[in-house]
Amino acid sequence: MLEKRLQELAARHLSRRLTPLHSGTGPVVEMAGRQILLFASNDYLGLALHPEVVQAAIEATQRFGAGSGAARLISGSLPPHQELESALAQFKGTEAALTFSSGYLANIGTIPALIGRDGLILADRLSHASLIDGCRLSRADFRIYRHNDTDHLETLLAKRRRERRTLIVTDGLFSMDGDLAPLPELSRLAQTYEADLYIDDAHGTGVMGPHGRGTAEHFGVNAGLPFQMGTLGKAFGSSGAYLAGPLTLIRYLMNTSRSFIFTTAPPPGSAAAVTAALRIIQREPERRARLWANRERLFTGLARLGFNLSPSVTPIMPILVGDAETALSFAEHLFTEGVYAPAIRPPTVPDATSRVRVTVTSEHTINHIDQALTAFQRAGQLSGLI
Ligand SMILES: *Cc1c(COP(=O)(O)O)cnc(C)c1O
């Protein structure tokens, strides 16, 4: 039965398997016994391997142990978690912050805490799977609006009963497309229609805005957003997630968010690593400058080669392919040419929009990018994409 379903997936070119990675997240990694240029990681600022971040993890691990022992409400809350939450609140300019073990857990715990059976959720069609799962778990009435289509969203807002509690849900920076949600317009609609706006800024945090505070900072709308969610496993180089907002909201979530209450706290080393990463993010804006310069070089190069690129404005630069089979063979050709970038297929993206998702980091050199462009050209030609 399971074997048959696996075979069906394989026949549709939708089966997945793990690619062993024998070194840290890059930019040059060891895969299948070869040196490969990695254009797949979300470690945008190269902080996962930063000596200061690694050292912070080691010291906190030696001092407080490999694990946290229990959920924080059960066995006590360790200093690394407390320090991280103060630092995050300060960074995001909010009264308080609450950390979760992952972005997935933050979304499936927070959304159902914020809205229930009698509420209405309006979510962007391309919202991350963890947001969709959070919306479903809430049991609220759940509607989808067309991607970044604020007219469609406004139509849905205008139709609902006014007194009905409403949550608008969106990625800040879309994880598989690399475009941005129109936050000024969404924030205006939320205010006009008295809805709450739930922004998942997993990919924007550390990357967007002059100080890396995220997509809201990029658009200058921080002040109009009472709370925001982001993750700590991408630009922050470790793992976890946060909800930043007013103290009352944070205390409420601590009391009601099931994925906070009923799960073991992240390891102290992981929390300490994030605090160290946050220090570097604030101290070294040149990392973001390098990231954006790399992004421009690679994006311009890919566009010049004639690839069909998604309307990305960020370090996530998907090459649109269409069918899953071609996306897979393109990724395989790329690998042969010494570059790893993954084929992304349904259900991660809508049907017939399979792609190869390319991400760049501050750690790629000009040489890496130019070598990669040669690989993209050969692989693109072999796959008939250019
Ligand atoms: C990666 C991602 C998540 C999940 O975060 P994890 O910390 O990896 O669980 C949630 N939302 C978006 C938009 C993401 O890209």
What descriptive keywords fit this protein?
Aspartate Aminotransferase, domain 2, three-stranded mixed β-sheet, Aspartate Aminotransferase, domain 1, globular, binds pyridoxal-5'-phosphate, 13 strands, alpha/beta, four-stranded parallel β-sheet, 2 domains, single chain, 386 residues
Largest sheet: 4 strands, parallel
Question: What's the gyration radius in Å?
Answer: 21 Å
When the domains are counted, the total is 2
What is the second-level CATH architecture of the largest domain?
3-Layer(aba) Sandwich
Total helix count?
15
Spatial strand sequence of the major β-sheet: 5-4-6-7
Describe, in plain words, how this protein is organized in 3D.
There is one protein chain. The chain has helices at 2-11, 51-64, 72-75, 79-92, 103-114, 129-138, 150-159, 183-192, 215-219, 247-256, 258-261, 268-283, 285-305, 324-336, 366-382, and strands spanning 28-31, 34-38, 96-100, 120-124, 141-145, 166-171, 196-200, 228-231, 241-245, 319-322, 339-340, 343-344, 354-356. The mean pLDDT is 97. It has 386 residues and is of the alpha/beta class. The protein has a four-stranded parallel sheet with strand order 5-4-6-7, with helices on both faces. Strands 1-2-11 form a three-stranded mixed sheet. The protein has a three-stranded antiparallel sheet with strand order 3-9-8, with helices on both faces. The chain has two domains: 14-43 and 285-382, Aspartate Aminotransferase, domain 1; 51-283, Type I PLP-dependent aspartate aminotransferase-like (Major domain) (Aspartate Aminotransferase, domain 2, 3-Layer(aba) Sandwich), CATH 3.40.640.10. The protein is built from 15 helices and 13 strands.
